[in-house]
Design goal:
12 helices, Rossmann fold, alpha/beta, 12% strand, 51% helix, 2 domains
């Protein structure tokens, strides 16, 4: 019997498109491909999610590395960047549906603490959650198995009674190795269909 549903945040409950957000914030379009490659795809970005760096520290690091992008980096590392993340209304509707049916709702996401505090205060859907593990607070990131185990242990979850939605296949694979039913999220309609097929 399925009792628990675990949601990732970025690209699942919140639309995460850094290139579009930068454009909306007025970053010059010619710089966006460079920023995507040199900043967002740099492995050190994962350490931001892990909580190793604060936004100010990472801003200083990248500014020294890429002084020609200093104006754009100033925009990226304002917390306004996270405030621009739009809610995926169709996924929220699915989450509310599950909550009303009695399922426990949990969140497991890679997110820096500063950014997460902003969105947690902004979006009411977090009040529907029964628990959460956010990478930046625990110094672990998906797909490291330890962060999943922390969620399991903290909330005394039975993996076989839990379904996990994440848009990254590697994150879903780790969940499966721990006995959680993992589903790669491609959209709310597909998620709903696959969930009800399982139960």
């Amino acid at each position: 019997m399925i009792r628990n549903v675990i949601f990732d945040l970025g690209r699942v409950l919140l639309e995460y498109k850094p290139d579009q957000i930068m454009k909306d914030m007025g970053v010059r379009e010619s710089a966006i491909p460079d920023l995507m490659e040199k900043v967002f795809r740099d492995p050190i970005w994962n350490e931001f999610d892990r909580g190793t760096y604060k936004a100010k520290e990472l801003h200083e690091l990248f500014s020294k590395r890429y002084p020609e992008l200093s104006a754009e980096l100033e925009v990226i590392f304002t917390l306004d960047f996270y405030d621009k993340l739009p809610l995926k209304e169709d996924t929220l509707k699915f989450l509310v549906e599950l909550k009303e049916k009695g399922y426990k709702i949990y969140f497991l996401s890679n997110f820096p603490p500063e950014g997460f505090e902003l969105i947690e205060n902004k979006f009411d859907f977090f009040k529907l959650g029964d628990g959460k593990i956010i990478s930046g607070y625990v110094k672990l990131i998906k797909p490291e198995p330890e962060i999943y185990q922390l969620l399991i242990d903290k909330y005394k979850l039975c993996p076989e009674e839990s379904v996990f939605f994440d848009d990254v296949p590697a994150n879903v694979e780790t969940a499966k190795k721990l006995g959680i039913i993992g589903i790669v999220f491609t959209g709310a309609d597909s998620a709903r269909e696959q969930f009800y097929r399982i139960i």
